[in-house]
């Protein structure tokens, strides 16, 4: 009996083992390796092996490096504005396209195209369209008597250019999820509200929004976490410039690790990035949980 | 019509295409037969190249393959990712490529780290096609501690291009003199003249083509090669030409203290001047990488430009590069300055002078230590860079640009250049401008010490980021120089002060 019990336990572990080994090799081990490296100095192109430096790398980024804080500031601003913009536009589009009208399916498909494009292709497409001299957008502006805009070459304008392109690319994601949410809403509630004399705005704020709140929370969180990892648009459109006006955290990590081969510093800034992302996600989830229970 | 009728048509079309690529495209008498030494060349060679050089490789690849029975596998990478691919191979030693075409300016730590083959034994064993034909400036950049570590392939330095139909028009010259009170030289002798000429020719239709033109254009985009445009200006105000020493032909660090010169008055002056030039440039200047600059300038949008030798090639090719300025360009060395800051006396010296700067240094071929087919790679390297083949690559006969003249023989074959589409007078002026710089024994070498990509040559480097912030008007020239100075002090400390000092002094030929 005991032998049979041990056998059953072993079988259970045998089934679990491949997944555990995979997880260990692909997720845990790299994380531990990165953590270890983050306490070292390793300029991989000139140093044969890492040197232990303790918390120096973290101290450097947190207290001595304005470029890190600049990248964090830009990334946070970008996430806040672009996700909010995408949510509002997605909500409006989903609301409009949830009603029946001629050509509705055509617009539904058209709005999904940006999301289907590879981000790096989107970046280069917009880079050409926004080119200050030969870009189609400035050509149109000039043809109607307006002055050309320095979309990517002004330190004040470039961050908003990145945000604008991101909104163009990712609003369809919000739209798609919210459209599905709209279509799943029970019609009885609206009929009852109409009988009680509620107008369209009251129905939207008191019925629609509370009912689709879980969807809004989920997609906002997914988009925000994804947006924090901004890289392709920066790489393709502005190269993080002018100066460091559009340098995102991911791009900065890439420069440190892959351009300068400072693997210790790169690991430290990656882990700081991960910690910031986790704090952001946990705060957002707990906040939304609280709102939902209220 | 029967379907089979298409078969012979397809066969004929394919045959014509093959004949074009294998026979017509490279005239047969110019193909040098590969000497099959005691090396097996029938292997698969993996080449790492970036976009400016893919056409060179594509031209010689089928001929090499046909002659040797070998195969060439080309890995094409954008400039922005070439460096990381190279370093990943050096760290992992997987033998992922046999030979790579890379910029010299990256090679300080590559040579020092022992990541590539020393080519001296190969040269001794297999020979090298006419080493004495390689110009001294180019020979110098391929060496490390006296040994040849890379195969030369490109003679790179910036030069001045100007529109003859603007700067040489007597009426404009008179109007310029009326406005500024002096006559400029052609090509402009210093950056003060460049500034005034740029202002004069900015935002009006001086070539009467119905479009507005601008004063000056140069590479200014971040994550590109704007840093070298700045160094063109910086070299003139920071030092004076002479045998390299702490105070002559030295623009990056104090050779005694290893203190960056970034905060010196010469640097600040250069930063101020280049920022001012953006006012007289096309509105999209800060988006100009090398390809945007070349396309814009040969399409006729500016009076002056500064670039490597490539604009000259693109000028000759209206079809391939949309040139509207064929025969309209003049060429010259970089402008000098009317003064320079003498750090020895700590004073400005008013003197017209010019410092030639071996800008970027050029592209070379390197063979990694872990390359699986080192001997075959060496043979391929000397095959495409021998005097006959390299001449065809630099002179425009093949209809592309990417490599600029670097052998003495390239300058002695004007007929080849004329066949490449050049006018006889144009090519004389163009080659003279380049050879004057490459022959200058006091030309300032580009920075090539460990950390160079972080100091200034790499995407996201200190100079790249802060220069762009200055050009966009986000920060002042003084602030930009201050930030660069602080970054450079930190980078030197991180890399090892004494080691960096030794490397830097060695790069200038100082003990």
Describe this protein's structure:
The complex is a heterodimer of chains A (294) and B (511). Chain A is mainly alpha-helical and 294 residues long. Chain A contains twelve helices and two strands. The longest helix of chain A has 36 residues. The radius of gyration of chain A is 25 Å and the shape is globular. Chain B is an alpha/beta fold and 511 residues long. In chain B, the strands form five sheets. A five-stranded mixed beta sheet of chain B has the order 2-1-3-14-6. In chain B, a hairpin with a 2-residue loop joins strand 4 and strand 5. Chain B is globular. About 2% of the residues of chain B have low confidence.
- Beta content of chain B comes to 5-15%
Helix/strand-derived class of chain B?
A: alpha/beta
Q: How much is the average pLDDT of chain A?
A: 90
Stretches with pLDDT under 50, minimum 5 residues of chain A: none
Span of the ends, CA to CA of chain A: 52 Å
What summary fits the major beta sheet of chain B? Answer: 5 strands, mixed
Helix content of chain B: 40-55%
Number of strands of chain A: 2
Assembly form of the protein: heterodimer
Q: Output the radius of gyration of chain B.
A: 24 Å
Largest interface: A-B, 34 and 43 residues
- Overall geometry of chain B comes to globular
The largest beta-sheet of chain A arranges its strands as 1-2
Compose a concise summary of this entry.
The complex is a heterodimer of chains A (294) and B (511). Chain A is mainly alpha-helical.
Summarize this structure as a short list of keywords or feature phrases.
heterodimer, A: 294 residues, mainly alpha, two-stranded antiparallel ribbon, 12 helices, globular, B: 511 residues, alpha/beta, five-stranded mixed β-sheet, four-stranded mixed β-sheet, 23 helices, 15 strands, 45% helix, 13% strand
Strand and helix map with partners:
The complex is a heterodimer of chains A (294) and B (511).
Chain A: H1 2-37, E1 40-41, E2 51-52, H2 56-64, H3 66-97, H4 104-116, H5 119-129, H6 136-143, H7 158-183, H8 187-195, H9 200-228, H10 232-238, H11 249-259, H12 263-293
Antiparallel strand pairs in A: 1-2
Helix pairs in contact in A: 2-3, 3-7, 3-9, 4-7, 5-10, 7-9, 7-10, 9-12, 11-12
Chain B: H1 6-24, E1 44-50, H2 54-68, E2 71-77, H3 79-92, E3 99-103, H4 107-112, H5 120-126, H6 136-141, E4 143-144, E5 147-148, E6 151-152, E7 159-163, H7 164-167, H8 170-180, H9 191-200, E8 214-217, H10 226-238, H11 265-277, H12 290-298, E9 302-307, H13 310-315, H14 318-321, E10 329-332, E11 337-342, E12 347-353, E13 357-358, E14 363-366, H15 374-384, H16 387-394, H17 408-411, H18 414-419, H19 424-439, E15 444-445, H20 452-457, H21 462-471, H22 477-495, H23 497-507
Parallel strand pairs in B: 1-2, 1-3, 8-9, 13-15
Antiparallel strand pairs in B: 3-14, 4-5, 6-14, 7-9, 7-10, 11-12
